[in-house]
Amino acid sequence: MVQAWYMDEEAGDPRRPHRAEPARPVGLEQLRRLGVLYWKLDADKYENDPELEKIRKERNYSWMDIITICKDKLPNYEEKIKMFFEEHLHLDEEIRYILDGSGYFDVRDQEDRWVRISMEKGDMITLPAGIYHRFTLDEKNYVKAMRLFVGDPVWTPYNRPSDHLEARKQYLEFLARTA
């Protein structure tokens, strides 16, 4: 089961857990109210997993690829890691399925506080269009993930502030409805 928590304000190494003290865990229902969806799948059978195929069909995730993020496999590793950790949003959902390794997705809650979502093998997450977020590896410095898209992939991140974008406005309307 996924673990998520409110982050501390420490500016240290982003790969550390950064749990707020006292601990403030965040459950799946609270993540859902932020528009974040989660599934636990069997990553060892991702190539022929009927559960994954069902999700892809229901949500129209027609495009996919696999990315490995580690120093040995990702060109321009240091630059990419910094880019992933820059707070941004997308105009489309961001869908990631962890096939091996681990890392953190950080998302902003309704009051603009960081919630850290620990992702490991078998975790699949969908972040809604318009949510401010970022990604970092954890201290193991390795993740292999499937990236899924509705239609052709669009990689454009819009760094904060991007409140003028329609996707952000729609996301804020969604938050107001779920409050």
From TrEMBL:
GO terms, molecular function: acireductone dioxygenase (Ni2+-requiring) activity; acireductone dioxygenase [iron(II)-requiring] activity; iron ion binding; nickel cation binding
EC number: 1.13.11.53, 1.13.11.54
Cofactor-binding details, from the entry: Binds either 1 Fe or Ni cation per monomer. Iron-binding promotes an acireductone dioxygenase reaction producing 2-keto-4-methylthiobutyrate, while nickel-binding promotes an acireductone dioxygenase reaction producing 3-(methylsulfanyl)propanoate.
Sites where the protein binds Ni(2+): 88, 90, 94, 133
Cofactor(s) required for function per UniProt: Ni(2+); Fe(2+)
Assigned GO CC terms: cytoplasm; nucleus; plasma membrane
Subunit structure as annotated in this protein's UniProt entry: Monomer. Interacts with MMP14.
Primary location class: membrane
Functional pathway: Amino-acid biosynthesis; L-methionine biosynthesis via salvage pathway; L-methionine from S-methyl-5-thio-alpha-D-ribose 1-phosphate: step 5/6
Protein name (database record): Acireductone dioxygenase
Biological process annotations from GO: L-methionine salvage from methylthioadenosine
Organism: Moschus moschiferus
Membership in a protein family: Belongs to the acireductone dioxygenase (ARD) family.
Main EC class the enzyme belongs to: oxidoreductase
InterPro entries (UniProt xref): ARD, ARD_euk, RmlC-like_jellyroll, RmlC_Cupin_sf
Membrane topology listed for this record: Peripheral membrane protein
Domain of life: Eukaryota
Subcellular location: Cell membrane; Cytoplasm; Nucleus
Residues engaged in binding Fe(2+): 88, 90, 94, 133
Known catalytic reactions: 1,2-dihydroxy-5-(methylsulfanyl)pent-1-en-3-one + O2 = 4-methylsulfanyl-2-oxobutanoate + formate + 2 H(+); 1,2-dihydroxy-5-(methylsulfanyl)pent-1-en-3-one + O2 = 3-(methylsulfanyl)propanoate + CO + formate + 2 H(+)
